[in-house]
Amino acid sequence: MRILALDHGTVRIGVATSDELKMIARPVEFIAAEPFSKFIERLRELIRELQVEQILIGMPRNMDGSYGEAAAKVRVFIAALKDVIAVPIRTWDERLTTVSASKALRSGGTRASDQRGKIDAASSAVLLQGYLDSLTP
Question: Do residues 104 and 122 touch, judged by C-beta distance below 8 A?
Answer without folding.
Answer: yes
